[in-house]
Amino acid sequence: MSQTHTLAAYIMQAVENNKMTLPTLTEVAMQIRRCENNPNLDVMDLARTIEHDPATAAQDLRIANSPLLRRQEKVADLSKAISLLGINYSAKLAVSFALKQLFNSANADLQHQMRNIWAHSMKVACHCYVLARHAKLMQEEAFLAGLLHIIGALPIIAMANQTATYDENELTNTLRQLHPMLGEQILTKWEFPREISDVPLNYGDHSRYINRLDYCDLVTIASNHLMPADENVPWADIAAVERFGWHAPEADEQLAALQPEIDLAYEIFNG
To answer: What is the C-alpha separation between 16 and 201, in angstroms, rounded?
Structure first.
């Protein structure tokens, strides 16, 4: 049996025996999610919740004052920023930024891998954010979908680092094989809506057939654009491109035209 098989089998056995430890939302993220489910939520309630995490509060303020939103008015008060951004937008972004804490580890090797996963997820998320504006989808939802599309990698990396028998190729192959299933399980456990929790399972299905463009389509396009040249799929083979309204031969040119917007989003969201 190959080593790749060994790591995958080791993880699958843990899943089947309910011994796989899935990551849990940070306390602040859980509180913000509870706020989202409150039909009577107001700006001050959300501001008080977000303020429990100063880094997340600072990011929300940074977004409110950023060139992304093209607002003339500068704000220094979180409740005012939430009023300008909107409660749903602010809450979704706050959850996104609070998730960064999951990508930390005291283990140096593990921390390096976690940072790589976070950096890639952030790039995909920023692509999705910009694509959503042009597709007239909710940008904050698109950003969250991109940020979470490989969340299933976290427990795999954590378990792989408990063994001394895997190599980088083995880990890479196991991640590709198992992260979609685990990602869906994690997001279902976190009670995200199906349009977000199904993304890990479906974004790699390039021939997926649905009637209308969705957030998963944006993740599919973004992920393929960020693939190394020898691994990306021809745009003509990706159904999401047509749903987006692009002709396959023009997709690279269209994405190049959006690159300044994407770079700005990355600069601001990753700050």
So the answer is: 18
Cα 138-140-144 angle, rounded to 5 deg: 120
Please give the tally of structural domains in the chain. Answer: 1
Encoded amino acid at 271, one letter = G
What pLDDT digit, counting tens, does each position of 49-72 carry? 898 888 888 888 888 888 877 666
Half-sphere exposure of 214 (CA within 13 A, CB side): 16
Please say whether the beta carbons of 89 and 140 come within 8 A. Answer: yes
Q: 100 lies in which domain range?
A: 3-269
Residue 150 tokens, joined: 């490989």
DSSP per-residue codes, 187-207: HHHTT--HHHHTHHHHTT-TT
pTM for the model: 0.90
- Output the domain CATH number for residue 11: 1.10.3210.10
